[in-house]
Amino acid sequence: xxxxxxxxxxxxxxxxxxxxxxxxxxxxxxxxxxxxxxxxxxxxxxxxxxxxxxxxxxxxxxxxxxxxxxxxxxxxxxxxxxxxxxxxxxxxxxxxxxxxxxxxxxxxxxxxxxxxxxxxxxxxxxxxxxxxx
Length: 133
Known about the structure:
Layout: H1 3-9, E1 13-18, E2 24-29, E3 32-34, E4 37-41, H2 53-60, E5 63-70, E6 79-90, H3 95-107, H4 109-113, E7 120-132
Antiparallel strand pairs: 1-2, 1-5, 3-4, 4-7, 5-6, 6-7
């Protein structure tokens, strides 16, 4: 299984964070894999608050997991890829933030049409684990 190709092609993943007290949080994200870094961001989709749990969690505990998976009723087609890493939050107007937004715009036309305000989350020091049927 070519895990990097599958991750790069995936349109959505799940981001798992844990706060300083060990309480887990899991959300769907769009993302871009750029070399050894995963980029995701806070975009303009409606949210109940701008004080997002994922951002607070990363500040308290930067260790995160990203899960990309494929389900099929034909279970011989099942696979998942989990990528653990260290997350950092960047303002969109920093060099790192702009690099992340460029990577996201290269994958998602919505981000080319309207640049998200950020912040941008980068995930580095990636540790890959995978399984396939």
